[in-house]
Amino acid sequence: xKAAVWHARRDIRVEEFPDPEHPKPDEVRLRISxxxxxxxxxxxxxxGPLFIPVEKPNPITGRxxxx
Length: 67
Known about the structure:
By secondary structure, the chain is an alpha+beta fold. Helices cover about 15% and strands about 20% of the residues.
């Protein structure tokens, strides 16, 4: 699957990731037809990190933020 990944201010990249396994009982799998960017995300892209925590790895993915 593809995901837009925030790397740093003005650095968002579309990257390929393995498809997730079957969803857990409290999760769903969605097929996205198209998407956009909201105003808060635009501010994060232009001036961030404002809301994205960069001091520790993401608790879901385990990936460290690069700032």
